[in-house]
Amino acid sequence: MLFRVKNFIYNAMKHIGDEYGSSHYRRLHRMDMILCIYSFIRLLIIGLMYMDVDRFPLYKYDYASLYCWENRKIVNKFFIIIQILITMIGFVGIKTFFYTPSNRLSIQILYDCIVYNTDQYYKSFDKPENIATKMSIRFDNHYCQHIHHHHHHHRHHQCSSMVMKKLFISIIIKYLIYIKVWLKSWLEMDHIDREMFEKINKMKLFPYATAKCRYNVVLFVMIIDFCTFIGHFIAIIHNLLQLYQYAALLSCTIMATYQLFHCGLNELNRKFYKIILDNKKRQKQKSINQNELQQLQFIYRQHNRLSYYELLTNKQTWSHSLYYFTIISLPINITFICELIFEDLSIQIQLLFISIIIIHMLTGLLPFLTLAHVSNDFHRIRNYILPMQPLLKCGQHLRMKIKYDCLYERLMFGKKIAYTIGHLAEITFTGLVEAFLHYFVAFFLIIGFYMKEQKL
Questions:
Q1: pLDDT of residue 356
Q2: What is the mean pLDDT of residues 316-324?
Q3: What UniProt keywords are attached to this protein's entry (predicted)?
């Protein structure tokens, strides 16, 4: 996937889901692995030169070693360590995405979210005449609102309105309204048949996801694919390209699935809260009716289903991958900051380092924040279980009452429904605060080591 840059996220997941196990797939990712191993060995050899240049005068025989040695004020031993760690991220990325069987639930969820959902979106496009009709109605509504507001303004400010060039301004306003209508039409999904998209062209693993939620995922994938297309032309160095690709895959796939989990859990919590409010408004009968009981059964099943998705994918794939990604990424980030603080770099190199640090922090931090938010969404339902329990009668709703008692007990005292960083920590907001404190400890340790090496 190194040189497949157009629609990178979509094509990468489609490639994994459709071609896993084929001879072409194996050859392609063997080549990826060979490139990583070659880069890793070559960087280790260059590192030997920095350890003892008299014993390993590699700059006499190798052009890459010569370049590093001539620019050793910038490309010093710590920069080589950063390059080695980046190559190790390449190994983690290849193992996580391209050597995980496509029938694993973690890959199936990513495929359903990024590939299948996007394909169903394009299949649900409405007829051109229907789209034109929707846009025309929307344009007329916006234009009428503007005319009404303009007449109201005209009555109060007649002197100023006489000075304005009415014809010129009305043409500009029409164009501005048209642009606004076009943008709103895309955001409101006027170009697709909502009923077909939501009821016929459903997702496989998230059949109850709302049309708005699914459209947000499609829009996110389109924007990210455009950004990664631009990013590939910026990160022209092989190792930076590797870092960018696997960081983009990790961050973007996690944030795409976050949209589905977050929207789905918010919808469940909203329905739960609505049942409680409806019962509070009733004066005479404060008890769950049959329709509300079915809603509670649906909420319970969906919550369990989404919890199963998260816990199983964490155990299968994400726990180990996030662990290795964290262990490798923290030294990269801290060492880049040390290079920026202590080395005498040119303005261009400083700007390059600052850009790399910002991109690295964003692609590393955002996935963990989104995963912590999903964990918070899973546990928010416990705030509604206690007010709902008195509404369930022991004689009529005993089974449902016991189910929600067990769910409340699991959420309060059981294992957290959250992704984990190996055995280090659970990815919750509390866990991220603790990890931030550990980051500072690692930061000062590496700075101490860096300063000690600089004095030698």
A1: 78
A2: 87
A3: Membrane, Transmembrane, Transmembrane helix
Q: Determine if the pTM surpasses 0.85.
A: no
More confident residue, 207 or 138: 207
Q: Taking a C-beta distance cutoff of 8 angstroms, is the pair 132, 140 a contact? A: no
**Residue of 407, 415, 217, 421 lying closest to 314 (CA atoms):** 421
Q: Which two tokens stand for residue 261?
A: 């989990």
Cα–Cα distance, 364 to 329 (Å, whole number)? 8
Residue 367 has pLDDT above 60, yes or no: yes
- Counting DSSP H helices and E strands in the chain, the numbers are 18, 2
Q: For residue 296, what are its two tokens?
A: 């509670």
What does the block give as tokens for 268? 């469940």
Could you give the CA distance from residue 20 to residue 313 in angstroms, rounded to a whole number? 19
- State both tokens at 9: 């996220």
Token pair recorded at residue 99: 């050597």
Q: Average the pLDDT over each of 268-272, 295-299, 325-329 and give the range with the smallest value.
A: 325-329
Q: How far apart are CA 406 and CA 253, in angstroms?
A: 32
- Per-residue pLDDT, averaged over 99-128, amounts to 88
Q: Which residues contact 16 (CB under 8 A, 6 or more apart)?
A: 97, 98, 102, 107, 110, 111
Position 294 pLDDT exceeds 80: yes
